[in-house]
Amino acid sequence: MADGARRNPLFRNLTAKLAAVPMVLTALVVFAGGTVWTVVYSFTSSKLLPKLKWVGLDQYERLWGASRWLVAIENLLIYGVLSLVLTISIGFMLAVLLDQKIRFEDTFRTIMLYPFALSFIVTGLVWQWLLNPEFGVPSVIKAMGWESFELDLLHDPKIVLYGLLVAGLWQGTGFVMCIMLAGLRGIDEDIWKACRVDGIPRWKTYLFVIVPMMRPVFITTLVIVASGIVKLYDLVVAQTSGGPGNASQVPAMYVYDYMFQAQNLGQGFAASSMMLVSVLIVLIPWAYLEFGGRKRG
């Protein structure tokens, strides 16, 4: 009986599985339960307090008819696409640089990863000061002799998103670099030797051999970065507060304002549910590629 239990995969690492039960139950109750509760109440007319007075899709119709929400979605799409492409591209190039076994690699890696240890609030405030035209980088450039230089990334509605993008790249690129470097260090050395014997240039080895082999690393990085983009909030609040006007509004700010300032829980829940949908759009393809492909293999 005992031997049969040991052979049964269900009883393997039983102690660890029992220790994980509280965490699993907490996740189910808090996260799954809270998610279902939010979606259900998004179909109600809840104001200051939640109440089960059904209004169907009225909250969603109002949501997609609000110009502020549409601006927030547009901003998130622009910021998200640029952030995804640039963060992963720059992070990979930095990882390739470190993979050359350069001197002071540990120091360089620490410097690049340090911004990730800061909160987005701190990052937003730091870059708010750095980009200030009166005493930041633009004023330094003027003091160096370029009197006609004008750049106000945080107060020009047309380019304010790029000011946010600079701060986001500064904080997130080092983290992506470390993930990519771990993937590169996991490549078998025999592959590099075979490519050198065949006379394949190093850049072609990276582009046509290494990058396809690192597909799981790229997919995981894509999911991590995209999830962070969807919930973008504190960086915007610290750097621009959504301004000038609504030029840097993002969906998370819309949710917060309607739930805690406008006291319209139903509208906030509807916006939260749409953010959940955007997260699922990212997670479902990742889960299919990771687990579905593995199952077929």
UniProtKB/TrEMBL annotation:
<keyword id="KW-0812">Transmembrane</keyword>
<protein>
    <submittedName>
        <fullName>Sugar ABC transporter permease</fullName>
    </submittedName>
</protein>
<keyword id="KW-1003">Cell membrane</keyword>
<feature type="transmembrane region" description="Helical">
    <location>
        <begin position="20"/>
        <end position="43"/>
    </location>
</feature>
<feature type="transmembrane region" description="Helical">
    <location>
        <begin position="76"/>
        <end position="98"/>
    </location>
</feature>
<feature type="transmembrane region" description="Helical">
    <location>
        <begin position="269"/>
        <end position="289"/>
    </location>
</feature>
<dbReference type="InterPro" id="IPR035906">
    <property type="entry name" value="MetI-like_sf"/>
</dbReference>
<comment type="similarity">
    <text>Belongs to the binding-protein-dependent transport system permease family.</text>
</comment>
<feature type="transmembrane region" description="Helical">
    <location>
        <begin position="159"/>
        <end position="184"/>
    </location>
</feature>
<feature type="transmembrane region" description="Helical">
    <location>
        <begin position="205"/>
        <end position="230"/>
    </location>
</feature>
<keyword id="KW-0472">Membrane</keyword>
<keyword id="KW-1133">Transmembrane helix</keyword>
<dbReference type="InterPro" id="IPR000515">
    <property type="entry name" value="MetI-like"/>
</dbReference>
<feature type="domain" description="ABC transmembrane type-1">
    <location>
        <begin position="73"/>
        <end position="286"/>
    </location>
</feature>
<feature type="transmembrane region" description="Helical">
    <location>
        <begin position="110"/>
        <end position="130"/>
    </location>
</feature>
<keyword id="KW-0813">Transport</keyword>
<dbReference type="GO" id="GO:0055085">
    <property type="term" value="P:transmembrane transport"/>
</dbReference>
<dbReference type="InterPro" id="IPR051393">
    <property type="entry name" value="ABC_transporter_permease"/>
</dbReference>
<dbReference type="Pfam" id="PF00528">
    <property type="entry name" value="BPD_transp_1"/>
</dbReference>
<dbReference type="GO" id="GO:0005886">
    <property type="term" value="C:plasma membrane"/>
</dbReference>
